[in-house]
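Consider the tokenized backbone below.
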């Protein structure tokens, strides 16, 4: 059926992101519940139409690991994207509510995301580009699905200036301006899995000495308005990635993994700490599932294999499914 704004009854605000807001709506002619994403687009009419054409590909994305698509339309000055309503919301909102997610469940999340990414890439040659807990949704049937993938190049361009604050799941190669590949999504998955298992963003201030800092970290991070308390080392322009001294090569990964310093995004100067964070991702060892021994070895190894800093070594979603 053709979707029209006047057939959609607003029921509830589901959340707000950088690019717009999402509402639960009812499609009154059919009684179907949907999530309607409203994206404010600063673009010419011709570009808007192009975006709509590009979004059309989503009609062909049919997988139980992908949030399904009902349609999109223009509602000046916005573009509305209507998708399957996922009644348990995002994993971001779930862990904010209940704390760290059980590692077995995190394993199921990994499986579903990899299935979704493999489907998108193998069948449609689509790279997701925005894997993070708020784009992994759950429903009460127990399904886990991904949403908000980058089907439309024009849409990506049109909302590019709202990008600050969402860039933190970016892979080191992406931060350095390399081509986005499906392996960049694998990096973002690794970061997301740690976040879910620990109940906090992995680059937030962590690490006192080594392994035993975890509980206090967690409590600390949960308290509101915690000041920015951890500085980062100055930029190391002399050190480029992939040199023998790079800290995250297979051979010396182990001995250096404890040295990474955390950076907090809470409080303080947000803009500055995001720049620092990007620098940190590029220059420091990748985060890990820590403290050692808290999680099953398979989980630690799996996350490590998502977070090889060198994309050549990092596996594809398909490899990781095996
Ligand atoms: P960002 O804008 O940085 O990507 P985001 O993913 O949180 O962040 P939106 O994509 O606008 O921003 O989504 C806002 C919130 O709406 C999500 O966090 C999620 O909780 C909720 N949401 C999005 N899509 C759905 C859906 N299909 N079903 C149910 N809830 C949804
Ligand atoms: Mg989203």
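A designed sequence for it:
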């Amino acid at each position: 059926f053709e979707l029209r704004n006047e057939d959609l009854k607003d029921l509830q605000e589901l959340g707000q992101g950088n690019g717009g807001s999402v509402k639960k709506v009812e499609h009154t002619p059919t009684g179907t519940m949907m999530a309607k994403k409203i994206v404010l687009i600063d673009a010419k009419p011709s570009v808007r139409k192009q975006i709509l054409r590009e979004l059309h590909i989503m009609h062909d994305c049919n997988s139980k690991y992908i949030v399904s698509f009902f349609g999109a339309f223009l509602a000046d000055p916005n573009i509305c994207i209507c998708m399957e309503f996922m009644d348990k919301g995002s994993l971001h909102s779930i862990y904010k509510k209940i704390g760290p997610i059980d590692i077995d469940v995190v394993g199921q999340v990994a499986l579903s995301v990899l299935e979704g990414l493999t489907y998108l890439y193998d069948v449609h040659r689509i790279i997701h580009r925005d894997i993070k807990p708020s784009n992994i949704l759950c429903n009460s049937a127990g399904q886990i699905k991904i949403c908000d993938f980058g089907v439309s190049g024009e849409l990506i361009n049109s909302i590019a200036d709202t990008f600050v604050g969402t860039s933190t799941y970016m892979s080191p190669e992406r931060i350095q301006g390399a081509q986005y590949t499906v392996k960049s999504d694998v990096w973002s998955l690794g970061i997301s899995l740690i976040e879910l298992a620990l109940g906090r963003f992995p680059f937030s201030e962590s690490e006192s000495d080594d392994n035993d800092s975890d509980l206090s970290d967690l409590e600390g991070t949960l308290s509101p308005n915690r000041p920015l308390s951890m500085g980062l080392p100055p930029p190391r322009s002399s050190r480029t990635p992939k040199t023998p001294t790079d800290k995250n090569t297979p051979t010396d990964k182990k001995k250096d993994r404890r040295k990474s310093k955390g950076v907090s995004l809470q409080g303080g100067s947000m803009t500055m700490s995001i720049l620092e964070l990007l620098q940190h991702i590029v220059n420091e060892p990748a985060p890990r599932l820590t403290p050692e021994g808290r999680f099953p070895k398979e989980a630690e190894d799996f996350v490590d294999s998502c977070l090889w800093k060198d994309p050549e070594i990092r596996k594809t979603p398909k490899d990781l499914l095996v």
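The longest helix spans residues 103-124.
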